[in-house]
Prior knowledge:
By secondary structure, the protein is mainly beta. The protein has helices at about 1-5, 75-85, and strands at about 15-20, 40-45, 45-60, 65-70, 115-125, 130-140, 155-165, 170-180, 185-190, 195-205, 215-220, 235-240, 240-245.
Amino acid sequence: xxxxxxxxxxxxxxxxxxxxxxxxxxxxxxxxxxxxxxxxxxxxxxxxxxxxxxxxxxxxxxxxxxxxxxxxxxxxxxxxxxxxxxxxxxxxxxxxxxxxxxxxxxxxxxxxxxxxxxxxxxxxxxxxxxxxxxxxxxxxxxxxxxxxxxxxxxxxxxxxxxxxxxxxxxxxxxxxxxxxxxxxxxxxxxxxxxxxxxxxxxxxxxxxxxxxxxxxxxxxxxxxxxxxxxxxxxxxxxxxxxxxxxxxxxxxxxx
Length: 255
């Protein structure tokens, strides 16, 4: 290849510099050419097709000037050949440097999760004032890609959605936050009692490739059906026509 390049008229590997001044140059860098462009360059023995390797700019009291460094066809070919040899172009290293190439990323797509089910639970707030719901979700573990070949799963991500009904009719599903889990089960918290939610899940491989979302599965959160205990007997007081009712905040049983 090098011999053919030399026979085509290219000079041996070398660099050529050409100085320029902004006020007199016919061709200016970044306006008419830039680094990497190929141009005809006048040489002592005629014109040669050369590549712009470097552009240098100087600005002082005399104005803007600089120089351009060109490389020959052979120089460009040898540079690309050296990159390939060192593996920069994606090939294996052949220089015997002992550097072990990185393991290529596994871009296989995991199979989407299936068999999603859930159950709702109602839990009291820590201060005892009200309740909130959570959904306990589970699905079949993903062990293969979408072609049935074994794959390693790093985590699963689930999302809840609830239906919003519009005043003038119609509705849409509003998505909530994403929650991740290393296993094929999780608790999805902070949901409203008595509301139906739908859930879907995707799997993420150890190389960061996502599966498709699973089919939706629906879970209705239970309501709090246990009534609060009877309060203690209130105390009544009247003054100047105003009736005041007070109680001690305890239950009728004294709790």
